Amino acid sequence: MKIKFYFLLLVAFFLKTNAQLYTPDTIDSLITKASKLTDKNKSIFIISEIYNQSDKINYGKGKMRSLFYLISDYNYMGNEKKALELSNKLLEVAQKEKNHLYEVRALIKLANIYAHSNFYNKTEETLEKALSASKNLEGDDYYVAVGNIYRCKSIFEELKNNLPQQLIYDKIALQYCLKINSEKIKQNELVTQYTNLASSYSDIEKSDSAIYYSRQAFIISKKIHTPVTEANALFGMARTYYSADKKDSAIYYYKKVLPLLIKLKNPTKLLILYENMSFMYEELGDTKNFMIYNTKALEQFNSNQVNKKILIDSVSNQILLDKQKEQDTKVYIIISGFAILIIIIIFFTIKLLIRYKKIKELKTITEIGLIEKYEKQLQEKLEIRNSEKEITTVSNISDEKENELIKKLNNFEKREQYLSQETSLSSIASAFNTNVNYLSKIIKKNKDNNFNGYINELRINYITQKLKTNPEYLTYKIAYLAEECGFSSYGYFVNIFKQQTGITPSKFIDYLKKNNNKNM
């Protein structure tokens, strides 16, 4: 791998000074080699140089291929801001070159970025454009493009928590993948699609189907044997076994894929891995490994949040720029001269006012708003749980058994037994004279949460009520409050408290103290 890198680096340097000696075929070959590098930083460096050389000789296909692989690398590394910038650039070059294949690919990349930034209207609009542009394609190009569009639609529905529609779109995407004639291209697409299907089946708790498609993806990935494909397949296996509550298998595959993800620098998958590993080790009672992975998860979460904010700001600016361009085009068609000047002034004035309003609104968000939002969410959860209890049943559990377990859970809550640090899924199941799988399903259905989330929510609700109703608690140290409500780890308590209320325990206490002083 090092030999390949230094060879390509030397070629990139040589290209920089002797672009006139290199043909499009040579550039195509270099792009293919660079795209297979495991080290994404090296890949980005080399492909950027190749793009510059393609631009110098005005080789359109070279520019588009370079941009496409650069976008994929930046996407994988979590640099969505750069991926957004290059996706727009690829779209511009593809439309200029009248290349519908790369136009569709650029639109799909943009749709994925918009979806993960929660700009849903923009996502739907972009996917419709991609579908329209794909009608100009034929053969494998068409099947790959449309398959990717429906795969993106599936991811979009997953983000909206529309699980049935997510599975439908994944099945449609699979049908297009199976129509691909080129065996090499088909294998690459099937690894991704089988992994997506496994995730969709896991989301609706169909473990057998999920495991089947994960294994199919894993088997094919061994034939392709590229770092990214291997990492995606291994990660898919791990997540599937995690969702199926097969901890030994999940831990095995997560440990196997971890070095690859670190080398490939994929922040999204690393966060999921660290969180799931910490949850499993907590349930297994392995405190040492729980603390290791919980710490890594917190560090990765903080890093990802910074990148997400940068991405959202970039997408917002991009959307504003798009609207501005559309408005400017209409203005130039309808009016001219002085009227154009007046409308531009009005447009920018409105834009500045909107921006000022947004800044002002952001500045006015306080701990009070966060606490009110937290209380509202608690009320909504209670209403949802109460309504779901009346109309649904858990598969494979009789109504009588389900009602019995629900009553025991209610008594468990009333007696505040969740405050014990020894509380675990297995200990409660034993006390209730049932098995952990039944109890886990009952909690997930009736409490709208997994076991850890359910216990953590009860504990945080308990301590916030104590702080609100008993002024003496406002004088206690955070470590004491953590122990009081059942947490053995100070840091874990602070993290869970902030996740549920939106602010840290110390800020929550400060707010209550100020509020009490005002009422005196």
From TrEMBL:
Pfam families membership: HTH_18
Transmembrane segments: 331-354
Keyword field: DNA-binding, Membrane, Signal, Transcription, Transcription regulation, Transmembrane, Transmembrane helix
Residue stretches making up the HTH araC/xylS-type domain: 416-511
The keyword Transcription appears for this protein: yes
Name listed for the protein in its UniProt record: HTH araC/xylS-type domain-containing protein
InterPro entries: Homeodomain-like_sf (IPR009057), HTH_AraC (IPR018060), TPR-like_helical_dom_sf (IPR011990), TPR_rpt (IPR019734)
Organism whose genome encodes this protein: Chryseobacterium ginsengisoli
Top-level taxon of origin: Bacteria
First and last residue of the signal peptide: 1-19
Record PANTHER family: ARAC-FAMILY TRANSCRIPTIONAL REGULATOR (PTHR43280:SF34)
